[in-house]
């Protein structure tokens, strides 16, 4: 037996198995995360309606296509650049304090945006403030469900992620109707009331098992863990996240404007954008269920590849409303699978004890690559409004998801090899990043169908 193998086995014996209830109050926490997703990612999906309105009516003096697209990118990504700090806040002062700060940021941003009259004000309110609200709510809650579930982890994540889909439906259709009947100002005020009230209810339901996870450790709050990012698996996860966010945000924000480029009305554009959210509601729990049956990474490889294929095969030749609706529904079911699979995959790569510090660094990649996505989508689209205006955008989105699928395929091979090297079922959800993997075993893992562990990949 090699010296490295002896070290790994010794570490396995010293690590106590982490108990995970796999349900119980965890389902209440799932409802809470569902509401958080409804009020953050779901509400953020509704920016497609505001974006189309700003583009059509040139709402703010001096604002152009890139300005309004940049506001959407800022709202999605700027706050996540500070994720390590937010992680530190949640550990130092508690998850509830962090989320409460986020609720205040988001509510303040929405109310001030409702009364904004200048372009820079929209950048700060509907962009920066809402982005920090989203980050302070989302960053602490993404690690909640892995603490409560193991075998049903992806299913619970899928149910919770469905909240963003329901939110997308309501905020797309509801805010579009309010804009038509009243104004953008009243749409933002109503959104403020809904998000603040529902997030506050979710906050009262939130519970964490952090003490149970770290009870045996002399745990110190870290902003960065060198051991985690010495692992190739962590970098493959970063690659997957980066490629996905480039394609995801473009799809999320572009389809409403794409529909109007075909000659349809803003209301009809909101219907197409809404179908993405309908697809989220249907697809995310299904993806979670399949991930628990066949493995999160395996399902992720297939799902992201399918999104790429449909971006090329269906979006590029799309010429009418019916095709756009079907395309939006199919892509909506699959394109946001990252939010279903992320918790399970990251936990599988680094373990529960290193989950928060890994997410803290991972959100930086989410922020960096989601920030320019709306601008890239707008720039790739032709300024001439016709059926071919978004061909380049569709090609780019497809290649983004193809890159994401490739990263997950490589990650699966790496984990198969790492499982064979550790050969310890008891390591599940514990720190496994120190297990060495040779290039030969990694190459072999790429063509291996099953892991040596009982857990699925």
UniProtKB/TrEMBL annotation:
GO terms for molecular function: transmembrane transporter activity. Keywords: Membrane, Transmembrane, Transmembrane helix. Coiled coil: none annotated. It is a multi-pass membrane protein. GO terms for cellular component: membrane. It comes from the Eukaryota. It is found in: Membrane. CDD domains: MFS_MCT_SLC16 (cd17352). InterPro entries: MFS (IPR011701), MFS_trans_sf (IPR036259), Proton-linked_MCT (IPR050327). The chain crosses the membrane at residues 25-47, 68-89, 95-115, 127-149, 155-174, 186-205, 233-255, 294-315, 321-345, 357-381, 387-411. Pfam families: MFS_1 (PF07690). Belongs to the major facilitator superfamily. Monocarboxylate porter (TC 2.A.1.13) family. This is Major facilitator superfamily (MFS) profile domain-containing protein. It comes from Zygotorulaspora mrakii (Zygosaccharomyces mrakii).
